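Late entry, pyridoxal-5'-phosphate complex.
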Amino acid sequence: MDMIPVNEPILDGNEKKYLIDCIESGWISSEGPYVRLLEEKFAKKIDRKFGIAVSNGSAALDVAAASLELGKGDEVIMPTFTIISCAAAIIRTGAKPVVIDCDPLTWNMDVNMIERRITPRTKAIMVVHIYGLPVDMDPVLELAKKYRLAVIEDAAEAIGQAYKGTMCGGFGQISTFSFYPNKLVTTGEGGMIFTDDKRIAEKCRYYRNLCFTKDRRFIHQHLGWNYRISNVQAAIGLAQLERLDEFILKKKRIGRRYTELLSDIAVLQLPLLRTDYADNLFWIYGLVLKDDVIFDAEVAMQKLRSYKIGSRPFFWPLHEQPVFRKKNLFKGQSYPVAEKIARRGFYIPCGLSLTDIQMDRVSYVLHEVIK
Ligand SMILES: *Cc1c(COP(=O)(O)O)cnc(C)c1O
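Prediction complete; structure with ligand written out below:
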């Protein structure tokens, strides 16, 4: 039997047609027309004024943090249960990440814990929608208003998701997406920044392009990055965006079907189908081993691998990252929910190409190995 990969994208829309256009027209660099087109269409889709496409989602966070002019002495509150890129972007500005634990059911940052971590140094709250369920934004926006903080929204895992009628990617001063192949829209490697603030948008374009200025090319006032995206990548992205609504339906269907197949395994914690404010988009389908299971996620994933089923572990909490320990960050801090799900959580195949037959096999094997 073939391996069931943890993710496989769908690329059978207009991707090929637009790629041929890139080659035939000769436009393959970031100067090509698909970059602007992707930026404009995506910004329109999520009701933002400006979209700035970049080379990946981590780059988007770097540029977003730089554009807010964070620096030494500043603090940014964020979840500990997230990808390292979130903290890396903040640390590279000279500011300090301050982390909080997550909710045991949604795995999103526990918004009730934010206020007690606000100090006179706090400049921003970075929210990260985890695994397809949006963060409860109302309390976050209220705190931001009360304490005059910026909101940075990492919506990489919530492309096409909405919270109370606002699209994810539409909250706060600045938002970011990733277009890595396991995201709802992929360009192979790629990402985007969104904002409604013209000044911030201009800064993002500036930082994305080595801080070149119009006056005299090759004379620089600031240090930026080459985080440009190519016309070839943007061409794929445009074809993907055309099918986003269809992809969302497919993901939700995968999530619902897995829940039906797996809900009789009492020792598995399944993802929530919905919260008070959103249906789960099931960016991924995560599982957490309950305490009755004598082994941890590492062993469960090995067992799945022996049946040729791909899986991935959950995030490793920021406060437990060796690279940050060495920098003496988060010293003596403990966040029990994140620590637990990092060790007991993993996710199973859930890419857009997944078939019912493959899901049935994943379910059969999970029933065999998780007892
Ligand atoms: C995927 C992801 C990123 C990073 O995106 P890359 O394109 O891989 O750099 C950042 N934040 C979150 C929440 C992600 O899921």
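The CA atoms of residues 249 and 281 lie 8 Å apart. Will revisit in the morning.
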